[in-house]
Structure formats: structure tokens, C-alpha cells
Amino acid sequence: MSTPVRRQYLAIKKRFPNTIVFFRLGDFYETFDEDAKTVAQVCDIVLTSRPVGKDQRVPLAGVPYHAVDGYLAKLIGAGYKVAIVEQVSDPKESKGLVAREVVRVVTPGTVVEPTLLDERRNNFLAALTLEDRRAGLAYVDITTGEFATTQFSGDDAAQEALQELARLQPAECLIPARPDAPERAALRGVECPITEWDAWRFDVQTAREALLQHFGVGTLAGFGCEGLPQAIRAAGAIVQYLQETQKAALAHLDSLTTYSTSRFMTLDASTRRNLELVATIRTGAVKGSLLGVLDLTRTSMGGRMLRQWLLQPLVEKAAIERRLDAVEALYNATPQRMKIRELLGGVGDLERLTNRLAQGIATPRDLLGLARALRRVPDVAAALDAILAGLPGGHPLAALRDRLNPCQAEADLIEAAIAEDAPATLANGGVIRPGYSDELDAIARASRDAKQWVAGLEQRERQRTGIKSLKVGYNKVFGYYIEVSKANMDRVPPDYVRKQTLVNGERFITPELKEYESLILNAQERRLELETRLYKELCERLATARGRMLDTGRALAELDVLASLAEVAVRNRYTRPEVAEDGIIDIREGRHPVVELTQKDEPFVPNDVRLVPGEGEIIILTGPNMAGKSTFLRQVALIVLMAQVGSFVPAQRAHIGIVDRIFTRIGAQDEIAAGQSTFMVEMVEVANILHHATSASLLILDEVGRGTSTYDGISIAWAVVEHIHNHPRLRAKTLFATHYHELTDLAGTLPRVRNFSMAVAEEGDRVIFLRKVIPGGADRSYGIHVAQLAGLPKSVIHRAEELLRELESGQNGAAIKPRAPRAKQLSFLTESDPVLQELRDLDISAMTPLEAINKLYEFQRRVGKG
Length: 866
Ligand SMILES: Nc1ncnc2c1ncn2[C@@H]1O[C@H](COP(=O)(O)OP(=O)(O)OP(=O)(O)O)[C@@H](O)[C@H]1O
Ligand SMILES: [Mg+2]
Known about the structure:
Blueprint: H1 4-15, E1 20-25, E2 28-32, H2 33-43, E3 48-53, E4 56-64, H3 68-77, E5 82-87, E6 100-106, E7 125-131, E8 134-141, E9 146-153, H4 157-168, E10 172-177, H5 182-186, E11 194-198, H6 204-215, H7 229-245, H8 247-251, E12 257-258, H9 269-274, H10 290-294, H11 300-311, H12 317-332, H13 334-344, H14 350-358, H15 364-389, H16 396-403, H17 408-417, H18 438-465, E13 471-475, E14 479-485, E15 497-501, E16 505-509, H19 511-543, H20 546-571, E17 578-580, E18 585-590, H21 595-598, E19 607-611, E20 618-622, H22 629-645, E21 653-657, E22 662-666, H23 678-692, E23 698-702, H24 710-726, E24 733-737, H25 746-749, E25 753-763, E26 766-775, H26 783-789, H27 794-809, H28 823-828, H29 834-841, H30 849-862
Parallel strand pairs: 1-5, 7-10, 9-12, 10-11, 17-21, 20-24, 20-25, 22-23, 23-24
Antiparallel strand pairs: 1-2, 2-4, 3-4, 5-6, 7-8, 8-9, 13-14, 14-16, 15-16, 18-19, 18-21, 25-26
Helix pairs in contact: 6-7, 11-20, 12-20, 13-15, 13-20, 14-15, 14-20, 15-17, 16-20, 18-19, 26-27
Bound molecules: adenosine-5'-triphosphate (ATP) and magnesium ion.
């Protein structure tokens, strides 16, 4: 026989078998049974037990409700989901068992707690569907209200969807739970937390119905996804999932955008990584990435938007020009730009604040933040007006200006209602400002009067009784009391009622004192109730302006991004690129945006590049190690990408023919974990490029073929360049860096291939890197020189030089067979031979002739003679 609470718990737990249930009991969230064991372990808290019936105890672990965020973070981080069960009826009013309900299920994609979120990144929940050559992908960020869906079709549908998924980097991705689900197979090896969910939720009819019902519409045409079954399946699954996990978030999800990835430049995961757009390869940090350079945003919502922009460059000329126009206007208007950036510094996260308001989880301080943000809007608008005054009509900044809605009435309301120094929560009152509600003020007045009466009591009673040491005090157990010391006991008046005996005295109460006390305590309780009600009403009223506020927030975020790009352009001397649709890339004095800032000991040397389709679109770049080939390749890709993001670029002049995709194949990465060898990965990437590149693409190939033997490598590299050059669909603009000097011969046979190399100067046996890209091929790699710089042992360097000379003079047969130097020589010159090492280290000038002869004898003995 178990207790009623236990039965209530088990009934709820049954509905959430794979979820940890946080069961609210008073001031704690309790977990039981297996859940308790998990929580105790993951959160490092004590596992106890609790009686649940006669002679029956179950494991128990509880966390205090006010500190729940930290525990949620740990559990979510460890891959668990948590169902929050609250008491939904007032324990004071309900007879018997308090009603309890699951109010939300916290999953990685549906968290709203600020401590669980990264301010500068969106937290996406995604859903993926795949079905005969079609794919659907939808995503939502419930902290910002962004909800979008898209569909892909064709042979590459699945791959394109995965690429989009990789861009979004969702915190959680829903797929149908079916043993044969193609989604599961497709996501194998992809780094993305998956939630398998009832497959029927993804049925197009169910999903469509869920969307129609949620938005209260009769057709999805208004959202642009009618007739896109995969887009509907994915979006519908998300809506249903939120219904189960996060109802509050659903309420303010009032629109759905259907988008097409064809409006954006496609960047595959390895390209994003190779170009270090938002994180460095080595450490994964933002610092040192392109985002690290470009992000001077003043708000976290701006930071999130810039990040999205970098991962999603545009391909439409008009759209790019609009951004560039806006950046240019801000670039030119330095005083206003400074003003705007200063104002934005105090705006905070209007986007997330608004959503917290709409979800009913905004704290009093959130509201104050909201008001503060809104107060800045008129000044921002004024600064924009000042810029617009000097610009022709229809300027993109004007459209942005129009989206700014000051919402001053809402700001007024907040300021009138919320106390300036409001506490972080409603728990202890003091949130509502005096003067906002007559009722609240009356309560406060009564309580104040009562308190004053109590405060004056000590004085009055001392006079009445003549007891000078009489004291009035308060404690939690007895409330207010009058304390009299033993010595004065005879003077205690008859109306005093004894309550407590102390060592040195007695504590008393009077009926009147108790009356005032209950007035004070009642007032506190009533005040809390009233404040809670007023606060809720206020939030509801404010939430009706959610749309306007959100729009304003997003406009401010965009302005923040544009102003940041303008500011970076000024600070780093960028110029506005000329964007065109002619396919020509012509950059003068281009620089690498990151290296030019991080490289301290040597000035950055700018370089030109010119790629003209049909004339010379393929560049073979040779040159010594460490000369700057890879830097140059990335620099060209980054400049093109920045231009298409709408940013100014690090160059003296840049003409950028819009590219549809940038492909990169750079360096060898360790993919052993993914079960593929280095060379295999390289070849998979090259295959991908050759299959998907078009004549509008930009290809960055850094030492393709180097992961295998020289002959194989050269042959592959050679064939790849021929293929790019000759295949009618390809003819992509290509930069190919290589140490295979043989490839420079290609320029002789393929008319649109050009040779370039990195200039070096030799000074004696020193090599000086000039960092300049010059026409013509290089003939040497100076690899040994670099090895020496890197600190390889001298003996190794010498030996390498010797071998190189031999190889170059062809002494050992074919030049590219470094394998078989003369056996005898090797046996003597084995690097590990201590005699050799000693011989090298011998300081002959410090020896007498006799010592030298002795040493020689010794050596002879040690190598086996005598
Ligand atoms: N234009 C430049 N101006 C100044 N320094 C540069 C320039 N380009 C590259 N460097 C510096 O040279 C270093 C090596 O450059 P990079 O890695 O591009 O050489 P690489 O030719 O690709 O060498 P490897 O053949 O070994 O791959 C960079 O880390 C950078 O510090
Ligand atoms: Mg390199």
C-alpha cells in the first residue's frame, strides 16, 4: 500500500519514462527511484531514501527549487531530459492532495534559463525529415521566437539538408523514431544531439493539422510552405514537440518563415571550419576566427545575428548591395555611428527579453531591462534620422529606421509599475513601485502604521511600567514580544501574558500587540499576493506589444551588426567591394583579415589576385614552405565571403563577381575518430567538390594529393586540375597551392591555367620570404630550410641536404626515389651511432695533437677495428 503522493508520482512518471522527473514538494524538486540515483550521481548530491508506505522506502534525491538552474544545466549537459512537475493548486486551499502537473520538459533544444544559454549564440531545436529524394528541415529558437522551415529536393537533398543542419548547429534535432528511419542513417557520424520521437508525429497530415491548429489558419499558403510536404512535416513535428515540452514557448510562436537555401551561399561544414569563420580549428575559440575580428557588436542579439550572417553569405546582388549601402552610410557618419554604438551598449538583449516576457518568465529586472532598452530607441532613431537626412530616399537604413518602434507607452508603464531597485524575484515583494496601485499603497500604509505603533511601544511601555530596561523584540517562533528582566518582574502590569521564560527574564505579549502583529503579517501576505497579481497583469498587458518590441529588437540587432561592420571597416582600413555578376574576382592589395591583425613581428604583405572566367580562372600557386601560400588562398576566400556578407573587405580595391559556393580542401585533419584515414578524408572532400562545384564556384585547394605517395599525389592533383579546367559544368575559379612543381607544366597545355609563386630572396644560405605572389612557377620548396627554422637536429638537416643533392643530381636513379641511398654509407652514418655524434661534437681546436691521435684510435676500436 503506498501513499497518495507516491501514486500521483508514479502516474506522472509512467508518462515520462525516458525523462528525469523533478517532482515539486514544497521548496524542493524531489526525484525518486532510478531518477534519484542518476541525479545524485550527475549533480553530485546526497542520495537518501523516503518512506512511501508501510515498510517501504525508495531512493530520493532533491534539489532546492530556487537553485534548480544549476542542476538542470548539469543534467541537460549530461544528455538527460527533465520533466518539471509543479504544484498547480494552492496547498493552503486544496483539501487533501495538492494537484500536480508537468509544466514543461526541459530538453537541450527547449531551455530558456539564461544560465543554460550562450548569449551570443542561438539555441536551435531542429527537426529533420527525409523521404525519396526530398528532405525537410525546420528549426526554432524559442528564446528569440525565430521559427523557419525549408525543403530540399533532388539527388543531393539529404546532403544539402545536413549541410544546413551543420550551419545551424542545433542543440537538439528531432527525427522520427523508426527502425528503418533514413534520418538516423543520414545523421550517423554527424555531430548533432538527436531526439527520436514518435514517427506518427512526422506524418504529413498530422504535422499539417498541428500547424493549422497552432496558427489558427485554414491554409499554410500564407507561410509559403503549402505544397512543401517535407517542410511541413519538419515544422509540424516541432510544434507538436513544443506542445509536449514547452507550452509557454508555443504561445508566442506566431509566425513561420519558409526559406530557401538557394538565397544563400552554400558552405559545407569543412569549408566553414577550414576558413575559421566562427571558431578556430585548433582551439574552437571565437578569438582568432573571422567572427572574432568582425564582431564589435554591442548587444548579444547583434552578436547572434552577425554569427548567422557569416555562416550564411548572400548570393543576390541587390541584397548584398543593400547591406553594403547601410554599412557605407554608417561608415561615413562617424559621430552618429559612435552615438548609435554607445546607445546600443545599453540596450541589452531586447529580443530574448521580449520573449521571456511573452513566455511569462520575465523577472522584475528583465522588465526594467526592457524599459531601459526601449528608452534608448528614440535616441537611436534620431541618430539614424541624422544620417538619413543626407541620403537619397529609399535608402536601406530608412527601412530599418521604420522598423524601430519606440514603445514608449510600454516603457512608461514599466517604469511606473516596477520599483527601480526591484529584487530579482517576486518571492519577497518590493517589486511594485509605490503609487502604482492604491490598494497596494493602502496595505503598505496600514502595515507601516502598525510597524510604527510597534516601534513606539517600547518607549510607551517603559513609561507606563517604569521599567527602564524593558525591550520589544521579534522572533520567528513567537512573533513580537515584550522582554522584562528578572529584577523588574514585580512591576509587570496585569495585562501582560507570559510566553517564554529566559535565564535572566521573561517574555510577554499583550492582546493589542498581537493584533498589530497580525496586521503586519497579514499585510505582508496580502501585499505579496497583490504584487504577484499586479505583476502578472502588467506582463500580460506588456505582452500585447510583443510584436512591436520584437520587431524593434531585431531592427536594433541588425543595426548593431551593420554598425559593427562599419566600425571594423574604419578601424582596419577596409574598403567597400564592388559586387558584380560577371564572375570576375579582381582584388588589389588584399590582406588576410585575421593574420594581418595577429601577426606582430612582421608587417603583413598585401597581394593581388585576378581570376577571369574563360581567360584565366585557375591559378597554380607554388613556392617554399612557410612562404604564405595557404594564407593567400584563405585570404581570397575570406574576402569574397566578407563581400557577400555585406561587409567591407581588407583590400585596396576589390571587384567580386558573386560566387554560389566556396569549396575548400585544406590541410590534413585527423579524422581517425570518424573512422576514416587522412587520405580518405581528403579524397572524399575532393570528390564532393568535383561533383558539386559549378562555374560560379570558388575552389580553394591546398596541397591536394599530398596525403599519399608522391607519384600518386601528383597524378591525382594533375587530373583534378584537368577535370576542373575541361569539364563544361565546372570551370570554377580555382586557387591550387602545391609543392609538386611538376604541376606548373599544366599551364603549358591548359589555356586557362596560370602559374604564380611566392617570391623569395636568397641571401647566402638564408632564405627570405617576401610574401609576394608573383607570376611564374617556383622551382624549389626550401623545405629543409624550414625544417632548420623549426629546430630539427642539425645532423638530420645535414643528412637531408646531402640526400637532396644526391636526388637532384640523379645519383640514385630516378629523382623521386629517396629510398635507397648506398647501403654501406647508411650503415656507417646511422644517425644513432654515438661515434658519429661524438665525432661531430669534437672540438678539434681545443685538443693537443696527442689527444687527437688517441681519440682516433679509440674511434677505430669502437667501430670494430683493433
Ligand atoms: N602576406 C603575408 N604577409 C606577412 N606574413 C605572412 C603573409 N602570408 C603568410 N605570412 C606568415 O607566414 C606564415 C606561413 O604562411 P603559410 O602557412 O600561408 O605558408 P605556406 O606557404 O602555406 O606554407 P606550407 O607550404 O608549409 O603550407 C603565416 O603563418 C604568416 O605568419
Ligand atoms: Mg600551406
